[in-house]
Amino acid sequence: MKQEIVLVTGAAGFLGSHLTDKLLAAGHSVIGVDNLATGNLANLAHLKHEPNFRLVEQDICVPFDVGHVDSVFNFASPASPDDYHRLGIETLLVGSAGTINTLEIARKYNAGYLHASTSECYGDPEVHPQVETYWGNVNPVGPRSVYDEAKRFSEAAVTAYHRYHNVNTHLVRIFNTYGPRLQANDGRVISNFMIQALRGNPLTIYGDGSQTRSFCFVSDLIEGIVRLSRSAEHTPVNIGNPVEWTIKECALEILAVTGADLPIVHRPLPQDDPTRRRPDITKAKALLGWEPKVSLNEGLKLSLDYFKACIDAAPVAASV
Ligand code: NAD
Ligand code: UDP
């Protein structure tokens, strides 16, 4: 594969940092851009002496230029519900202005462009499992809309830059992903349950725990994303693990993996919390020859040391 200069926005975040590692390992040079809104420099600490990597501290909502790049991976955005509720306007802006600014970079340098979209585009889905041709069921004025609608706008913008400017774009709809570097205190279910279990606190299930999610280990996701970026596909592609878990089953799996024997407590279900989510990955399998390899049990075991280190390093939110 040709060695490229790659721009990764959101490089200090969970997924952006893993993507950066993968691209560097393949011999590319990476320019990471991040404003540290939800990211963590510790995710990039191991790259301090890496000659093919540099980090630019920059808000992508402001037009910027890092010089010639061969491809752009746009991963900058708050991603956890706690984060995008706290940063609602910023989330709308990064999905709109930030996406346009990065598309302009791809247009200027004739670079490939991959955007990190989300299963949230399907909202609370009436079609199950979710297939890419389903248009979704999103409440445009609900509390999650700052994220969902920003991502739907991004998909429209990315598609328009392909349609009007012939930019070589790719759209990945990412389903819930976990692994080392998932922020311990950003409120997502895997980090909450892992930290609670390792601290000996009760696990907090929102609602009755019958809602479902499908959890993909980070290495599987990044492999699918890199394959998509090398493909000729411009329409959205689901990347996620199709094994579906109720949140209650997920809590029990985490208790089993951590060896903890703890009570489960119930908290109110957030408004518009999707009742079910599972990717149909037929398209990714056919187009990319991709499917996930890591089971939830294996992935949680691979994440244990990271979450233990988080507890040792710093206190996390009191509710967790
Ligand atoms: P994260 O919060 O760990 O990382 C996001 C990064 O973007 C952070 O480093 C943050 O500082 C940076 N950022 C936010 N706003 C910015 C701005 N205006 N300018 C520059 N940098 C900015 O989240 P993540 O889980 O790594 O998610 C990365 C991307 O993948 C996001 O776009 C998210 O919507 C998408 N995604 C993630 C998941 C998942 O399960 N992790 C699922 C679907 C989609
Ligand atoms: N959830 C939970 N307990 C927690 C955190 C989350 O029961 O401590 C639930 C949440 O209500 C949702 C699911 O777990 O139904 C996944 O939540 P997360 O925030 O990880 O991601 P989402 O898929 O909702 O964006």
Question: Describe it for me?
Answer:
- The protein folds into 2 domains: 5-177 and 217-239, NAD(P)-binding Rossmann-like Domain (Rossmann fold, 3-Layer(aba) Sandwich), CATH 3.40.50.720; 179-213 and 243-277 and 294-313, UDP-galactose 4-epimerase, domain 1, CATH 3.90.25.10.
- It is globular, with a radius of gyration of 19 Å.
- The chain has 9 helices and 13 strands.
- Strands 3-2-1-4-5-6-11 form a 7-stranded parallel beta sheet, sandwiched between helices. The chain has a two-stranded parallel sheet with strand order 7-10. It has a two-stranded parallel sheet with strand order 8-13.
- The model has no long low-confidence stretch (mean pLDDT 96).
- By secondary structure, the chain is of the alpha/beta class.
- Bound molecules: nicotinamide-adenine-dinucleotide and uridine-5'-diphosphate.
- It is found in: Golgi apparatus, Golgi stack membrane.
- Pathway: Nucleotide-sugar biosynthesis; UDP-alpha-D-xylose biosynthesis; UDP-alpha-D-xylose from UDP-alpha-D-glucuronate: step 1/1.
- Keywords: Decarboxylase, Glycoprotein, Golgi apparatus, Lyase, Membrane, NAD, Signal-anchor, Transmembrane, Transmembrane helix.
